[in-house]
């Protein structure tokens, strides 16, 4: 073991000298011998020690235990107690000062050296642990500070994103509303052209053809603007459930007329309205979005001559419906993307579309607290199942 600077605090002068001699044989340096706690503290004030050998019973006002408490607080030096007493009361007092070791008198030099070595090892490890704890606490403080700063940055970024989102929504809504009026005018003009073309005119066929093309294009643009307006409101959290009394047959007749008018394919829609009340209490705008988009998609992605089955019925306070087609279907690996905005399956080819319809359907059903599921296979068609709670 390497040489240590040791302070001996022992009120028995003979025992102190014997201890000094034994320690010096092991090349340790004795920086002083004190017979009281006061003298031990005075020596430590002017000399550096590696360890203190402390008798519990000392002359003076400070006993070994009190002196050890002061040494622990001021100098943080390991202390080894020396005592001829091993009773429970003494041991309890000793343990309270967290000593590095405890030696019962009389002791042999081998035992003493082992105790001192363990005391130094224990002290070193405790100080290393304290250093690691301090470093850890500093890292935690720094990480906490960094995290707080990052949270501030995130809060600022989220606030900026919210402001940008609101600005984007306002722009989208304003621009979309701005397009509505001219599109309505274009649609009216196209319809007038068709009326004039019904009269005898050398360019009657061409006028009807181009007027129809204009009308279909305007309807497509109008549908796209409606979708954009819908998501502008959705992003601004302005889509509310606004129930009102409505006539069921009138709602579905209007939807079917719009779908048939916008269809470019010769597809038959088989309609079954079963066990339905005359009126229901729900949000007609959201119901319109759901069924118009589902039926339009079913017709759009079917081929000429195919059929679409549309069935609606009332069951246990919910409006149930199925929309089944035998069209191109949806590849299985793309099923989980079906309701994503702007998603279009890879097998749609040149069929036009915005990829917003099913997103609108999904959002509308969520607002109505309903449920939607589907089954689809590529080349075999798709079936959507809808359930929406309503009041009669």
UniProtKB/TrEMBL annotation:
Keywords: ATP-binding, Coiled coil, Kinase, Nucleotide-binding, Phosphoprotein, Transferase, Two-component regulatory system. The keyword Phosphoprotein applies. Pfam families: HATPase_c (PF02518), HisKA (PF00512), Response_reg (PF00072). Signal peptide: none annotated. It catalyses: ATP + protein L-histidine = ADP + protein N-phospho-L-histidine. GO terms for molecular function: ATP binding; phosphorelay sensor kinase activity. It comes from the Bacteria. The modification 4-aspartylphosphate is found at residue 55. Residues 174-392 form the Histidine kinase domain. This is histidine kinase. Residues 5-120 form the Response regulatory domain.
């Amino acid at each position: 073991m390497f040489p240590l600077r040791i302070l001996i605090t022992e009120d028995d002068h003979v025992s102190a000298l014997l201890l000094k001699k034994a320690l010096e044989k092991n090349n340790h340096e004795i920086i002083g011998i004190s017979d009281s706690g006061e003298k031990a503290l005075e020596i430590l004030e002017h000399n550096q020690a590696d360890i203190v050998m402390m008798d519990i019973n000392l002359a003076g006002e400070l006993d070994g235990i009190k002196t050890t408490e002061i040494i622990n607080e001021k100098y943080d030096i390991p202390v080894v107690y020396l005592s001829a007493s091993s009773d429970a009361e003494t041991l309890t007092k000793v343990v309270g000062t967290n000593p590095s070791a405890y030696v019962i008198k009389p002791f042999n030099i081998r035992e003493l050296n082992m105790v001192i070595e363990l005391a130094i090892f224990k002290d070193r490890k405790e100080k290393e642990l304290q250093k690691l704890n301090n470093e850890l606490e500093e890292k935690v403080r720094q990480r906490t500070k960094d995290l707080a700063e990052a949270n501030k940055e995130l809060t600022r970024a989220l606030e900026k994103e919210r402001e940008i989102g609101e600005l984007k929504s306002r722009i989208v809504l304003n621009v979309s509303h701005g397009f509505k009026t001219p599109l309505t005018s274009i649609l009216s003009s196209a319809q007038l052209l068709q009326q004039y073309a019904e009269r005898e005119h050398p360019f009657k066929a061409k006028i009807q053809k181009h007027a129809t093309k204009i009308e279909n294009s305007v309807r497509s643009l109008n549908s796209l603007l409606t979708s954009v307006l819908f998501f502008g409101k959705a992003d601004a959290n302005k889509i509310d459930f606004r129930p009102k009394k409505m006539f069921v047959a009138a709602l579905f007749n209007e939807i079917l007329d719009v779908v048939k008018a916008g269809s470019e394919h010769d597809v038959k829609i088989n309609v079954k309205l079963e066990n339905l009340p005359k009126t229901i209490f729900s949000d007609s705008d959201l119901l319109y979005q759901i069924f118009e988009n589902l039926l339009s998609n079913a017709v759009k992605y079917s081929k000429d001559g195919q059929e679409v089955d549309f069935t609606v019925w009332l069951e246990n306070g919910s409006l149930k419906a199925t929309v089944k087609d035998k069209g191109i279907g949806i590849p299985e690996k793309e099923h989980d993307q079906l309701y994503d905005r702007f998603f279009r399956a890879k097998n749609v080819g040149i069929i036009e579309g915005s990829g917003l319809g099913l997103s609108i359907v999904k959002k509308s059903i969520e607002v109505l607290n309903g449920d939607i599921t589907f089954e689809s296979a590529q080349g075999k068609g798709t079936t959507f199942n809808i359930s929406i709670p309503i009041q009669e």
